[in-house]
Design goal:
0% strand; mainly alpha; single chain; flat; 93 residues
Length: 93
């Protein structure tokens, strides 16, 4: 049998668990509901915009979205969200 391979994030998570850095919550149902509400608020799409974009950029965007398995509108929304929340980072070359 082959040994499972983990990425760096998974290795750190496993190590964290082994070091007992995780605690159970006493009110799991309330925490789950709180997380669901945050997710609902984060993903709520209550505004619509219209933009002009070059045909070439749109085709590249659609291709990238297809490679990610996403509708291109979802990719645009995701990129904009990451930008306005300061989580958009430069791609390493």
């Amino acid at each position: 049998m082959s040994k499972l391979q983990f990425n760096d994030y998974e290795e750190r998570l496993i190590e964290s668990i082994h070091q007992d850095e995780w605690n159970s919550v006493s009110n799991l149902d309330a925490e789950v509901e709180k997380a669901r509400e945050i997710a609902r608020q984060t993903t709520a799409k209550d505004s619509k915009i219209t933009i002009r974009i070059s045909g070439r950029d749109l085709e590249l965007l659609k291709t990238m979205a297809m490679d990610e398995g996403l509708p291109y509108q979802t990719m645009v929304t995701s990129v904009l969200h990451k930008y306005v929340t300061g989580k958009l980072t430069d791609k390493e070359k």
